[in-house]
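Task: sequence design from structure.
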């Protein structure tokens, strides 16, 4: 069955990615120097989708101003989810913009055309969802799946038994799906798309298709690092290849005595000084200055950031317009990270640095530190755990 419309759910904030999402919606966070949303839209267009509908909400102007009225020649329609009342509620907002069968994808997961194409190829008018093998399916927060043949028999958010498959967040639905979705039971006033799938799966009314395409779920800060690692490893970057695994934009300036250890990408107008070591698994964004003898590895450095001489950043995600002083140290490595009320054990995360943060010379960020927007860490000071937006840490 031919499907020409793709609906992208891009209204969420992504609270587990704060402070990065304090200033932009989750789909606009960069991985390998491009917003997550662009990878989603590319996957849809490359798979043959010719009409895009974007459901926007939190800081929607950031999405609309970036994408515009067309994407790669494909028309884009925007619908607004004024209140975030669940993924099913978000999809319902697209009801008037969709005519006929359609594809639905989450706007906050990095996917490739194969994942989309597998769902489209399997769709025959019966609701269809892409599933994939996952080594930790029992721990996956967005749903473990069990199949009987090609039929979904279970979709469980927090499973107890052994599961090997997870929900990939790519669905194909017939034209009448919105009526079924609207009738789904709410949870505390919220409507969730997986709940509609669960109800229909009880009637053996959902097809599950296995996919092995590129797929990275972005739920936590360290997922941004993993997505960048996979994208760089696959060569899925915009910048021109300088050598194997090394991608440098034509307007970037890299000193001949700097070392780029691939896979690595250097964005437009970036400047890398002598003695700097960048990489592996690192993305240096637009208009970034890295001063002499600094080291950046397994990190994402946001646009318009300055990294001072002799600084060391490992396993870091930084926002935009930061000032990282000389001799700053973020040692990185595995640590326990507190996100909200949950403790995530042995995650590889040096620090998450919000927009417009200042790290003065000689300061240090302990493993797993989260620095809010506009925070300051003074000369020689050590910051740990969570630092609120606008706060100052002194020695």
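Answer:
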């Amino acid at each position: 069955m031919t499907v020409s419309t793709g609906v992208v759910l891009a209204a969420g904030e992504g609270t587990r990615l704060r402070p990065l999402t304090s200033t932009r919606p989750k789909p606009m966070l960069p991985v390998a120097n491009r917003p997550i949303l662009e990878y989603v839209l590319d996957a849809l267009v490359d798979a043959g989708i010719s009409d895009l509908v974007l459901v926007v909400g939190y800081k929607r102007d950031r999405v609309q101003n970036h994408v515009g009225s067309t994407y790669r020649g494909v028309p884009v329609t925007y619908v607004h989810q004024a209140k975030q009342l669940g993924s099913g509620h978000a999809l319902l907002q697209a009801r008037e913009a969709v005519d006929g069968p359609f594809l639905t994808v989450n706007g906050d997961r990095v996917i490739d055309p194969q994942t989309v194409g597998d769902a489209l190829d399997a769709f025959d008018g019966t609701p269809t969802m892409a599933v994939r093998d996952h080594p930790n399916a029992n721990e996956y927060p967005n749903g473990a799946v069990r199949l009987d043949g090609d039929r979904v028999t279970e979709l469980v958010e927090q499973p107890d038994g052994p599961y090997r498959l997870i929900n990939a967040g790519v669905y194909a639905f017939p034209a009448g799906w919105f009526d079924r979705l609207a009738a789904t039971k709410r949870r505390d006033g919220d409507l969730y798309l997986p709940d509609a799938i669960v109800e229909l799966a009880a009637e053996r009314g959902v097809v599950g298709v296995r996919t092995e395409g590129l797929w990275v779920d972005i739920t936590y800060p360290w997922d941004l690092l993993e997505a960048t690692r996979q994208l760089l490893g696959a060569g899925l970057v915009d910048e021109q290849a300088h050598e194997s695994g090394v991608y440098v934009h034509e307007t970037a300036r890299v000193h001949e005595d700097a070392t780029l250890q691939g896979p690595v990408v250097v964005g437009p107008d970036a400047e890398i000084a002598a003695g700097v070591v960048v990489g592996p698994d690192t993305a240096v964004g637009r208009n970034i200055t890295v001063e002499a003898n600094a080291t950046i590895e397994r990190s994402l450095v946001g646009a318009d950031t300055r990294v001072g001489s002799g600084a060391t950043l490992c396993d870091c995600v930084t926002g935009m317009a930061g000032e990282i002083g000389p001799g700053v140290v973020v040692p990185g490595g595995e640590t326990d990270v507190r996100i909200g009320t949950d403790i995530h054990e042995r995650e590889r995360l040096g620090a998450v640095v919000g927009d417009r943060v200042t790290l003065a010379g000689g300061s240090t960020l302990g493993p797993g530190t989260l620095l809010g927007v506009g925070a300051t860490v003074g000369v020689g000071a050590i910051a740990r755990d969570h630092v609120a937006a606008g706060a100052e840490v002194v020695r």
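The two ends are 65 Å apart (CA to CA).
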